[in-house]
Amino acid sequence: MGPSSCHLLILIPLLQLIIPGSTQCSLDSVMDKKIKDILNRLEYSPSPVSKKLSCTSVKSQGRLASCPAGMSVTGCACGYGCGSWDVQGGTTCHCQCSVMDWTTARCCYLA
Prior knowledge:
This is Resistin like beta. Keywords: Disulfide bond, Hormone, Secreted, Signal. The chain is α+β, with helices and mostly antiparallel strands. It has a domain at 53-110: Immunoglobulin-like. The strands form 2 sheets. A 3-stranded antiparallel beta sheet has the order 1-6-3, with no helix packed on it. The chain contains 1 helix and 6 strands; from the N terminus they run H-E-E-E-E-E-E.
């Protein structure tokens, strides 16, 4: 075996070490570009039609307070310091304490 054959045998393993490294770098750059492209498409862009949240409070005597048609409950408050309430049907606040003098529903809709 001549000296050129020995150089070739040494060069082949070196080439194998270099090729995966350079391939990985190009793969990393391609993946970085793809990720940046996807993130750019996901960024918030407001719609041309802007909507406004419109809210009002409805106070009733007793344990129930209902929102007007087209509005939804976003929160409730109960008299006598009662903190136990639930929303029924998306439009009515129900205070769960046994004795209740008033209930307030916070009602909102998108205008």
